[in-house]
Write a structure and sequence with these properties.
The structure holds two protein chains of two kinds. Chain A is mainly alpha-helical. In chain A, 76% of the residues lie in helices and 3% in strands. Chain A has a two-stranded antiparallel sheet with strand order 1-2. Chain B has a single domain, classed as ABC transporter involved in vitamin B12 uptake, BtuC, CATH 1.10.3470. Chain B is an all-alpha fold. Chain B has a two-stranded antiparallel ribbon with strand order 1-2. The chains are: A mainly alpha, B mainly alpha. At the A-B interface, α4, α7, α8, α9 and α11 of A face α6, α13 and α16 of B.
Chain lengths: 289, 335
């Protein structure tokens, strides 16, 4: 029983790690532009799809595919920002809320439908395995372990990127006070573009890990976005640590629910987490970067 | 009181009403079904407008009330309970659910509220397909079949009129004034002595009643429901698209949007000259229309000049303006 528990926690931590990567992007976008990017889950799906296609076509090592996916998705983020977000960015708050919901839900639906039309509604996975080893009766696959190491590495990189570089400092400045940041001469539109690049890039990375660990289908996008919302609410918006902790909690909770109740209940875990957080601690666990 | 409410509904309105009541006598049953669906979307859309337009809380999962009521109705109806009692059960279940869920959800702001509600739709689709013993799982529930478009036509017409009437009454009432002030600024509204939580909850529950009425009747009409037909994402997004297209927060917006959207859908589905791939991609079309509306015309159709001119011409000009002037506060633009 103990080994099962350890196994479950490991699986949950891994799942939570992939969640946290994408959820941080979502919360960054939300804090900086006040736009809730409902399309976010679709980019995970697209990241997984690109990996699947590249893997089927070339048979490259998935971690090499990761190096291809990251620039593609950063530029996809720039393009997405330019085409759909920029035109609505300057509207007054309530109109911005309406427009952002309408636009992002519309794009998400369109992406879902087009993907399922072109690549079919079937579930896809990348069958790639690396040798597993056993420690004290706990089976650890080295694929999962290396993904975990990559996630940790990426998180540390992100942390230092936000703390040390100029762009990172500018992002944090805008998080704290947008008008103040403008006054001291930070180029806000450019930073917003960069933020979308980072966020969508992270979503793409999460998509690569997702397709390696689980399977993807065209309709996983919106349920994933709902999970990220739960994570962002749980962790508090705009906080890297918050996204990480929220992601881990949700990942472990979902794995346990999936093991004890059945896999199709995992989405309701996110939902009940959301309701619970709202009832107990509406402002989230952590504040800002 | 009488004058304030009833006098605006004269002339053109009464002509339209008589036309609608006589319509089933003169046209093909196909168009009766078409117009009953239009009424259904007007009802759902106009009640969505109560929370989204008047209160300023975009409830993307508004359609969930429709589905809950449809399921409540059907689960009782198959046991042989009379129609009206089943309707009452459907509405009661929905209203209780709305009251319970409104407490945690109305603490959310803006996009979070929208998405949490949208999650509700997904959750209910999941629950309805998982609880096989109660809901029949993905098989759905089959009711006793029958041919009843005409009765349904009048039920839906009645509910749509009721919804439209309530949506007309709200901006004139004290309740509506409270909703508008909450929409503009919650803290200020609270400072002026408005019980913010009670009004938000009231609007949320009130808006859940109309889809509940329609949901039960719809289950009765179609004689078959499954999770896909009452909790499907595309079904849930359609009324939202209609209202946004027509114009949120206006009286005519949901009506114009519903009629326009149903005509577009009809063309997309039936026109022989359109290629097949366009029909397969009709959800993509819906999404792109939604995005285009958000980018190019945030105010919706009722703010466009040709539409305005048309409504002035037929004498409904006074319904055009936003129900209440919005003071949407300025923020430093991003240069």
């Amino acid at each position: 029983m103990l080994t099962v528990l350890v196994q479950l926690i490991l699986a949950g931590v891994l799942q939570g790690g992939t969640y946290a990567l994408a959820a941080f992007g979502l919360s960054l976008i939300f804090c900086i532009t006040e736009i809730l990017n409902i399309t976010h889950g679709e980019f995970i799906m697209l990241g997984g799809l690109v990996t699947y296609i590249l893997f089927a076509a070339t048979g490259l090592h998935p971690f090499l595919i990761l190096l291809i996916v990251i620039p593609i998705f950063i530029f996809l983020g720039f393009g997405y920002q330019k085409a759909f977000i920029k035109p609505i960015l300057n509207r007054p708050p309530r109109q911005l809320l309406f427009s952002s919901i309408v636009v992002t839900v519309g794009i998400a639906t369109a992406i879902e439908d087009t993907t399922s039309f072109i690549w079919g509604p079937t579930v896809k996975g990348v069958s790639f395995s690396m040798p597993a080893f056993t420690i004290c009766g706990v089976v650890i696959s080295s694929l999962r372990l290396s993904i975990l190491v990559l996630i940790i590495g990426l998180t540390i990189f992100l942390h230092f990127y936000l703390k040390k570089t100029f762009v990172g400092k500018a992002i944090r400045a805008i998080l704290q006070n947008r008008e103040g940041a403008m006054v001291i001469g930070i180029n806000v539109p450019r930073i917003i573009t960069v933020v979308f690049g980072i966020a969508i890039g992270l979503a793409g990375v999460a998509g690569v890990f997702y397709v390696l660990l689980f399977t993807i289908g065209p309709f996983i996008g919106l349920p994933l976005t709902i999970r990220y919302i739960a994570i962002v609410m749980l962790g508090g918006s705009g906080s890297l640590l918050g996204s990480l902790v929220g992601g881990l909690i949700l990942g472990v909770a979902e794995t346990f629910a999936g093991f004890f109740l059945g896999a199709h209940w995992s989405l309701s875990v996110a939902f009940f987490t959301l309701v619970l957080v709202l009832l107990l601690k509406p402002e989230g666990l952590f504040r800002h970067v | 009181m009488f004058k304030k409410i009833f006098v605006p509904f004269n002339g053109v309105f009464i002509l339209i009403l008589i036309g609608l009541i006589l319509l089933p006598r003169f046209v093909d049953p196909y168009w009766v079904v078409f117009s009953l669906l239009v009424f259904m979307y007007i009802g759902v859309g106009a009640s969505f407008n109560i929370t989204a337009g008047y209160l300023g809380y975009v409830n993307l999962g508004h359609y969930v009330f429709f589905g809950i009521s449809a399921y409540g109705f059907s689960m009782v109806y198959v046991k042989g309970v009379p129609f009206l009692l089943c309707m009452a059960v459907g509405i009661a279940v929905t209203v209780i659910f709305a009251t319970l869920i409104s407490y945690p959800f109305l603490r959310l702001k803006g996009g979070y509220f929208a998405l949490a509600n949208f999650g509700l739709i997904k959750l209910f689709e999941l629950v309805a397909s998982s609880l096989r013993d109660f809901t029949g799982g993905t098989q759905g529930i089959s009711l006793k079949p029958g041919y009843r478009p005409f009765q349904t036509y009048f039920i839906f017409l009645g509910v749509a009129l009721l919804t439209v009437f309530v949506c007309y009454w709200i901006p004139k009432s004290k309740f509506g004034l409270a909703l508008f002030s909450i929409r503009e600024d919650e803290e200020v509204a609270a400072a002026f002595g408005i019980d913010v939580n009670r009004h938000k909850m009231g609007a949320y529950v009130l808006s859940s009643v109309f889809p509940a009425l329609l949901g039960g009747a719809y289950a009765w009409y179609s004689a078959y429901i499954d999770p896909e037909t009452v909790f499907g994402t595309d079904k849930a997004l359609l009324p939202v698209t209609m209202v946004m297209l027509g114009g949120t927060g206006t009286f005519l917006g949901p009506i114009v949007g519903a009629i326009f959207m149903m005509i577009i859908e009809e063309i997309l589905w039936t026109a022989a000259w359109l290629p097949v791939w366009m029909k397969s991609l009709h959800l993509t079309m819906l999404g792109l229309i939604l995005a285009a509306v958000g980018i190019f015309s945030p105010g919706g159709f009722v703010t466009l000049t040709p539409v305005t001119v048309f409504f002035r011409w037929i004498g409904l000009g006074r319904f055009l303006g936003a129900s209440h002037k919005s003071l949407d506060l300025e923020r430093a633009p991003i240069q």
